[in-house]
Design goal:
Length: 155
């Protein structure tokens, strides 16, 4: 299997709605064996997940990986805290940005890159309610324009 092959496991659409994405970073995840098997089956949710940095190490909280059905006593807690694998320079960069007001780190997606489980994380700034409304209005206008274009071309 080639290292360039990626298989999407989970996507966090809510993050794009709630935050302005400033910068994306790819990180590895420290997982147990049964968690990897469950991920391969696509049983993962990162909708309520968030990332914190403690003792110069990044951790992901609230990431739900369902227990592996064929597993036994080796299954781990579905909501346990998992360590993210990042370079020291990346962590220092994130720490510096988080100290600025309004920045946070959010997970965007979980996927397999080759045989390795990866998380796409983003340095993000929270949206206000009026920003969210403006985005919804833009999306509606774009959808209407596409609909009109389609109707015109069918004739």
């Amino acid at each position: 299997m080639s290292n360039d092959v990626t298989k999407m496991v989970a996507n966090n659409k809510k993050a794009y709605h709630d935050f302005f994405i400033e910068e994306k970073i790819e990180a590895g995840i420290a997982l147990a064996g049964t968690e990897v098997k469950s991920l391969r089956m696509g049983k993962c949710s990162i909708k309520e997940a968030y990332i914190q940095i403690k003792d110069n190490e990044a951790y992901i909280y609230g990431m739900h990986i369902s227990p592996y059905e064929m597993g036994n006593i080796f299954n781990k807690d579905p909501l346990r805290v998992r360590k993210l694998l990042l370079h020291k320079s990346q962590i220092n960069h994130l720490i510096g940005k988080i100290k600025e007001r309004g920045y946070s780190i959010v997970p965007l997606s979980v996927y397999f890159k080759g045989n390795y489980a990866k998380v796409a994380i983003a340095l993000a700034k929270g949206k206000k309610l009026y920003d969210k409304r403006a985005d919804i209005a833009k999306k509606d206008m774009k959808r209407e324009a596409q609909r009109e274009f389609k109707v015109r071309n069918l004739r």
